[in-house]
Fold these 3 entries.
Entry 1:
Amino acid sequence: MKKSLLFIFLMLTALALQAQKDTTYSFRNLSSRSFVRENTNTNISIYPVPVRYNTFSIKTDKEMKLVKVTNMIGQDIFRAQYKNPQSFTKVMLENPQRGMYLVTIAFNDGSRVVKKIMIENPD
């Protein structure tokens, strides 16, 4: 149990740090001993930055099949799976708290991208 929690904490920390660098990775056959990361060249726009009024948009040059927003302790606050993959989506959050969040985007080709966003309360 302790090893699993430590592994999860380390993965979330690594994802948060990598999201700052705007680097894209794909994870396959993830285990506690090894993982594969692939750098993909995907153009992704998330706007507005910072996010205000509980809504933001995502535009990519690849088709998305999943969008997930997670707080920094790993709780999903938004999740959408698309039957018909799309390259543009609008995300509407219900009363998010101010702070940093991770946006995970999964594509049809199996790759995933994690981006960090900041949510602010409007003035």
Entry 2:
Amino acid sequence: MTARLYRYTRLLLILLLACGPGACALFQPRDPVNISVIGIEPLPGQELELRMAVKMRVQNPNETPIDYNGIALNLEVNGQPLAAGVSDQQGHIGRYAEAVIVVPVSITAFAFLRQAYGLGQVNALQGLPYRLRGKLAGGPLGTVRFTDEGKLDLPSGGYW
């Protein structure tokens, strides 16, 4: 019995030593994906809800392709949540490639009122900070998260 246990332990150790270095390839560091919002189009909404289709260009600067089977997106303006959306679309972004992805997002009446109140508290509409956060879902090890931050320069005066 002890000899058999010793033999199985030795076999398990050999398998771990043989497969262990290959498993480290799963955890290689990735460069973050580059996200650019390239368009926003209106969609039909419900009573007190505004819906939009956000078009994003997603660039994969990595050696490995990205296969995704769902997308989530959140947009904050001036530190307050404004829009959120999800999509169950599937796709593939090759290594060192890019794709245009469209995600429907919703702006609730409450989020709109919160933004309107916040805009009333600022002196100028120039330089409002925004943050776009999201993820491309691809399983437990394949999910790719992204963030894009910047400042919105809204037209002032007679341009509205």
Entry 3:
Amino acid sequence: MRVGRHALLVALKLAVSVSLLSVLLRRADLGGIAAGLRQAEWSWIATALGLYFLMLAVSAWRWQQLLFAQGVDLPIGRLFESFLVATFFNNFLPSNVGGDVVRIADTARPAGSKTLATTVVLLDRGVGLLGLVLVAAVGATIARWSAREAGPVGATTLWAGLVAGTVVSLPVFLAPRTLHVLAGPIRRLHPEWIDERLDRLTGALVRFRQSPAAMAACFGGAVVVQLILVAFYYALARSLGIPIGFAQLSLLVPVSFLVQMAPISINGLGVREATFGLYFRQLGLPLHSALLLSLGGAAAIMAVSVAGAGAYIARLRRRQRIERP
């Protein structure tokens, strides 16, 4: 029953993605897309790929800072490899959860607890989301002041979302024991099991609260990651000859990532392109340019994911050699 429900959900998401892409492609100038691909500058594409690898390295460093705060010391190379493998699973599974599962599995044993490893990854995700909204809010503000462009989401909405997210998350750090109160209703299901994990979770949050430098580094790293992603799309835009500026992309790129989080499509496919198309229309740019940049970015990220597949295969072979008698 559960398998059938999951298959139905995937089918519905696929239908949304295919439907949106079909509508957009019918309205776009396919000749313009072909011309843009023929004129692409490979030097800028190589720059974009290098920036994406740099983003993964900064993400691994940010993750390392959170692990350090929990007394878990892992080399940056190992965490970078884990991020590469996670990127592969994120892009070739119908959700982004697969990558998080990889990261949790890779750190559960060194952390001594799957709960602790999960807490670190979820916190990393949460801080990353705040950094994403901050960059989008600043980009929307600059766009409104400089060219009176509203963008796909207004600056006021983004700043309000950032403040709301901060207000909601702060009490968890200032008073972690409140989690026991919030979890009161579900404790009745399995008190001992739930209490044990709540104790580990609150202990981890206390250690984070006692490590403000690690938290600041994580948030700063999250902002840097988003700026690198904007630079990644800017390099692709330069490659394809699309006249869009860094400031404009600093609004569009984070917002497109926010939109992709909605569980209504396959990894944001179709929804992302619609978001690009909406903003490009506001900028007076053609739809085919929006599709070129959006799908080109997805293709470049998938190309990086191939390295993640290679890292995963190499990992499996190492395990086979170790397990061989």
